[in-house]
Amino acid sequence: MSTIALYYPWMRFRNENWLKLAILTWDSVGRIQPRLTMDVDSELVTQLRAETDFLFGVEPSRREIVAVADVFGEIVELGGDDLRKRFSWRQAVEDASGERAVSGPRADYPGLRWVHAGQSGPKMTPPLLSSFEAADLAVVVYEDDAVYVGLHPALARIYLTALADVVSRHRALAPATDDVHSAVGTLDRLYELLLDEDVAVPAIGDVEGAYIHLAVEASIRPDHLETVPLDTLIAFRDRYGGELAAFRAHVASLSTDLGTIAAIEDPVVAEKHLQSVYNAKTKPQLDELRHALRALGVESGTGLLGIKVDITKSTAGTLLGAGLAATGSPAAMAGGAALAVGSYVADRRKARRAAHRESPVSYLLAVDKELSGRSLIDRMRRRGR
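RE: above sequence
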């Protein structure tokens, strides 16, 4: 899987917890965004853009929007009447009567989703715009030298998903979404999606990315995710890049199981299957790693405290005896014991690092210890002492 994602179908993130998980999942995330789009991002997104290069904008090339327009144009020509019945923009406006989601001229058309089609980074070709308008599938609004195409929400989702499908393929990006039923791979089956009401639509577009999300959620206990500061997430991601890469390789090894799940169209059932794979394949390795580290005196992030407590009387006696046998004097015995304890601690540290390196799920353990709500509370308590 690509380590760089393309967010779709919308331009603005709708779920900040999803975005926080994305920081722990991908190296960076792009979104299809015209250059001159007004900045109405949330505070979290604005901070993320200002402090990191994690988010970046993608402008579709002419070749990409033409590829989508060619297929959509043929379908509009063949099935205009059926499309109008399913995706009438007038019906969407009527159903949303009384709502006012945006300002300016677009406020007269509540309930529609808007696709930028102006000169700067357009997402739709002028010929397709004209075809949509002629077929009564779209209303066009001119606002501040920009052109916006208003579509029925379902039609807009399918169109933008098809565009993301083309862009992600051409640029080797992993499609990623927080929107239910926006699976990619749609361009080749666009006719069925638009005109067949019974067509099967997979619930998950990038099943490997979704699996990583689920595994990280299981570790950080999402009830506390909103309390984790953005700075902490960024620092954590930078520190554990190697472990994340190893975990991605573990997820790639599950391709057969995840490939089966990718065809499921019920989002609830798809998530159940993802959870089942996690319980059967990933969680046992995580539990084994926890057990191995616990045997090395590492419990709940206590580090060397755990090692010190783990030096039992029998162990200490063995170390003292070794020092005495080597020197024959109490003073030398004390020095020898100190050296032996120091060597013991060093050996445990090496064993701990080896356990981390050898486990492909060590990333999840790091997430659990450093970003869980319990760990954060413990840190605050320690600071208050």
